[in-house]
Structure formats: C-alpha cells, structure tokens
Design a protein that fits this description.
A hairpin with a 2-residue loop joins strand 6 and strand 7. 58% of the residues lie in helices and 17% in strands. Helix 7 packs antiparallel against helix 13 and helix 9 runs antiparallel to helix 11. By secondary structure, the protein is an alpha/beta fold.
Length: 561
C-alpha cells in the first residue's frame, strides 16, 4: 500500500506531503481546487508520460516521492529480476526537469520508465475517468477477463510461445520456397555463379600480392638500376667490402696494444659478415627480377578476373566466399526442395494440431472463468441498486490467427432493466450505470490479485441519493482488504471514509497554491456540510453530518464481523 507521497513543484503544488492509511481514504474539495493534480502526481510517480506542464511555473524541476509497504510476492519477484534490494518498504522517486530530462530511482537504484511501470503495476491500480470509455473497447474487455482468469490462463499462454514461434518460421520457409517456383531457371543461374567463382579460384590476399608484384614490374628498370649499383658497391669493385677488409687488416696489427683495438676489429668483422649477406641478397633480387611484358599481361588479366568477381558478388574476398556458400546451400535446397517442402508441411500439420489444442484450452479456460465473473459482477451490481441488471460475455473466434493471446474475441453484453434484451455494452449503458459497473468489476478483480492499492478518480460522478449510499458501502467492503484512495464529491463517501482529506487552493500576492490536509472529526463534519450544501453554523446541518458518520461507522463495524 501507499504509505506516504511527497510532491514538490508539481503543477500548482509547491511542497506537500500526504500520509495515507489503510482502508478508505477519501479526497474532496471545491471544483478546481487541485484534486486531479494529486492523481496526476501519483500517476507520474507510477510511470505515466511526463511533460513540462507537470513542473510548477518558475521552477526548474518537479519531484514526486512515493513510499510503499510491500507484501506482494509478484512485485518481490520483479524487484529480484531487476536486482533491486528491498525489505518491507519500497521508495520510488521520479524527477523531471524543464529541459525534458527524467530520472527515476527505486530504492536508490536508477531504473527505466518501462521497469518502473512493471514494478508499480503490481502495487497500484488507478481508475481514471477515461477508463469508463476504454472498457467499451473489445481488446480491453478481453484484458479484464484475462486478469480475472489469473495464473491458470497465464500458464496456458506461455505454452503458446514455442509452437507459435515455430509455426511462423515454418510458414515463412514455405513461402520462401514457393517463391522459387521457377526452380530450374534459378538453379541454372546459381550453378553458373558457382562455376564462375570456383573457376577464378580467388585466394585470400591474392589481389594485394598481385598489386605489389605489378608495382615492381612497372618500376622494374628503376629497381634494376638501383640494385645493380648497390651490388657493384658491395661486391668490392668500388672498394665496398674490400675497403673494410683492408681496414680490418690494419687494425689486426694493433690488437696487442689493448682491448679497444679488439672491439674495433670485432665490429669490422661483423660489418663484413653483414655486408656479405646483403650482397648475396641484392644479387638474388637482381637475378630474380622478371619484368617481361608477358608477366605484366598475366598479372593484369588475373587482377581483372578478381575485380570482376568482387564487383558481381560483394566487393571483398570474404563477401565472395559468403555468396558462394549461400549459393551452394540454395542449390542444395532447390535440388532437395520436394523433400524439404514435404517435411515443412508435415511440421505444419503437427504444429496446427498442437496450437488448436492449446487455443481450445485457452478458450475453455476463459469461458469457465467468464461464467463465474459474470455471475459475481451481476451479484455485485444488485448491491449497487441494479437489481435487474444482467451481464454476459459473448465469445467469437478469430480464424487462422497466430496470436500469443489466443483466438478469442469477446464482447461485454449488458442489460440494466428487466425484460430488456442484452446488448453490446457500448450501445446501451449510461454514465451512472457505467460507474457502478466499473466498481462492481473492480470489486471482483481486486479479490483475484495481489494489488494492495486501488485509486479511483471520481468514479461516483453523476451518482446521488440511494445509489450513492450503495456505492459508498461497496467501497467500504473493498477497503476491508485493500487500500482505497478515492476522489469524490459525495458527502456519503466522506462520511464512510476511514481517513478524509481536504484539497484546497489559496493565493498570496504573486502565486496560487494547491495543498491538502488530513481532516479530524470536526473537519470531517464541516466538509460533509459543505458537500451537502449546508451552512457550517447550522445545528441541523451539523446533526445531519454527525448522523451520516455514525451510520457509516455502524455499517463498517457490521461488515467487519
């Protein structure tokens, strides 16, 4: 449940803190006092989309912090998956700045918006005024029923993942193979391409080596001249090595005069050895130099073959080789296509059977729970002064669907009056009826999940009189097991509340502020009087408010027994 919420610089709220309690928490106030801002702030902390309008004018950022007490295995599993440490408390902090930057922390750990929604969806269910309309959508109706079905349906859906994935892959392969209906022509093309690549027999690094060889041939004359001159110098004709040998002989005569002459002599010997080796190397290069026109033509021809291959099949040696392998695989497929198609069709039949069985189980599961769901909601509607209301769910099947959600399409059918036929809910239900229907629905679903907090934003709009009383009683019943935070204009809701809050606005010379305070008994009395349109100084109004609170308290005590 929500223990506390701190709001800073959010819309008209400067800085406020609200401590919620167990049971029924009712927020009331004048129209325009900022009741919706409180809900917006909570939604913001739960992961709703944010924009700059959230930030109080003149401020650089807004911050909402929510403290939760956690007693929910599902949220504990989610937190473990995200490696977020926790004990019995969870603290969510969300900040949004004027430059559009958002930061979210859960127990001090930074999380994404998606992670936040996954965490908070296990903790809080927010019923906004727009949900009335969303429930008229068939997809949302199916989602509601699935929530009621619980883990049994979730397990069945999980069984769909593997066969649906396999079926999509199988159908894709069959489509691809059928696209190659002109197999013989395609086979001829592939064989030609394979033959062309294999004939050239391009080797890794060959082009680079050929380019280097061509470079040598193009500059062969220059290279030959340089090598010849170097060889002449080294071979002794111009006193290259011979000069060093002669110098060594002179130094040899001086060895007896000290080690320093020995070092010079050793150095000259090493130089002679190195020069001899390099002389032979230069001679080998000179002898091996081949710069014939024929050789140059052969290199150019080979380079043309390689370049043509690269141009056609990928631009590099690696790409050409990959094309070759792919073509060889496709040839094998075409040659064996009949066998492959036969196997794929066999797999398809097996997968269809498996999927049909799981889809049938999903449908049966939904229908089983739908009967219970409709009965429970109808009974709940009776307690909300809709004794003649009837609610059923119609099922139809989508054909050839590969959805992970099953093949069911459903339609909520509703009749508010005795003797009237069931009709599509979107076409027959009124606003007041919809409010009661939503409350009945939430009442039933709340008993099926681990969510501890339900937030209602003016679900009682358009309700009055005896119907208002029945709705307040229903809220009290739900609040025995769940925390409820409700914005309401009804005096009976404030009377029935376990904790009442007043939202109000005030101004100073420059700004308008919206804030909230918890009401004590006298404050609760005054708020009830305001809601019924009475005068605070009227004893009759005060007595009436006191009686409303007493009757509400008596009812809450009676349902606790």
């Amino acid at each position: 449940m929500i223990q506390k919420i701190s709001i800073k610089n959010f819309a008209l709220i400067d800085n406020t803190e609200i401590e919620f309690n167990n049971g029924l928490n009712v927020l009331s106030g004048e129209t325009g006092s900022g009741k919706s801002i409180i809900i917006d702030a909570i939604n913001f902390a739960l992961g709703a989309k944010a924009d700059k309008s959230c930030i109080r004018f003149g401020s650089q950022e807004c911050l909402v912090t929510v403290n939760f007490s956690v007693d929910n295995d599902e949220v504990k599993h989610v937190l473990n998956d995200f490696d977020i440490e926790f004990d019995d408390e969870l603290i969510v902090k969300r900040k949004f700045t004027v430059d559009g930057k958002s930061s979210i922390k859960v127990n001090g750990e930074t999380v994404t918006g998606g992670m936040l929604k996954k965490i908070t969806s296990c903790l809080v269910d927010v019923h906004g005024q727009s949900e009335h309309y969303s429930l008229l959508d068939k997809e949302n109706q199916l989602s509601v029923l699935d929530k009621y079905c619980g883990q049994e349906l979730s397990d069945l859906k999980q069984r769909l993942v593997c066969p649906v994935t396999q079926m999509k892959k199988t159908l894709s392969e069959l489509k691809r193979l059928s696209a190659n209906s002109d197999g013989e022509r395609r086979l001829d093309i592939l064989k030609y391409q394979i033959e062309e690549i294999e004939k050239v027999d391009m080797r890794n690094g060959e082009e680079e080596n050929l380019l280097e060889e061509r470079k040598i041939i193009v500059n062969a004359e220059k290279i030959a001249d340089s090598l010849g001159e170097a060889y002449s110098l080294l071979s002794g004709e111009d006193k290259g090595v011979d000069a060093i040998v002669s110098a060594g002989r002179r130094i040899l005569q001086l060895l007896s005069f000290g080690d320093k002459y020995s070092q010079i002599y050793d150095g000259l010997e090493n130089a002679i050895s190195i020069l001899n080796e390099q002389t032979y190397a230069v001679k080998d290069l000179l002898d091996g130099l081949d710069y014939s026109e024929q050789k140059a033509d052969e290199i150019e021809k080979r380079l043309d073959e390689i370049r043509d291959l690269k141009r056609k099949y990928g631009g590099s040696y690696e790409a050409v080789q990959e094309f070759l392998k792919s073509a060889q695989r496709e040839v094998e497929e075409i040659v064996n296509s009949a066998e492959i198609v036969e196997k794929l069709n066999s797999d398809k039949i097996k997968l269809e059977k498996e999927l049909n069985e799981i889809y049938a189980e999903i449908t049966n599961c939904r229908k089983k729970y739908a009967l219970k769901f409709c009965k429970s909601v109808t009974e709940s509607l009776k307690t909300l002064a809709m004794q003649s209301a009837t609610f059923e769910i119609n099922f139809t099947e989508k054909q050839d669907s590969l959805s992970l959600n099953g093949r069911d399409e459903i339609e909520f059918m509703f009749s508010a009056n005795k003797g009237e036929p069931l009709k599509n809910m979107a076409k027959t239900i009124s606003g007041g009826e919809m409010s009661r229907f939503m409350l009945a629905l939430k009442s039933e679903i709340s008993a099926m999940n681990g969510i501890s907090t339900y937030i209602f934003d003016e679900i009682d709009a358009g309700i009055s009189g005896q119907v208002a009383l029945t709705m307040a009683k229903k809220f009290a019943e739900i609040a025995l097991h769940k925390q409820i935070i409700a914005i309401s204009h009804l005096a009976i809701m404030t009377a029935m509340s376990d904790t009442s809050f007043l939202i109000y606005k005030f101004e100073n010379e420059t700004k308008t502020y919206s804030t909230i305070k918890a009401l004590d008994y006298n404050g609760k009395i005054n708020e009830i009087i305001r809601l019924v349109g009475g005068q605070n100084d009227s004893e009759i109004a005060k007595t009436h408010a006191e009686n409303m609170i007493k009757q509400a308290t008596d009812y809450k005590n009676s349902i606790k027994k």
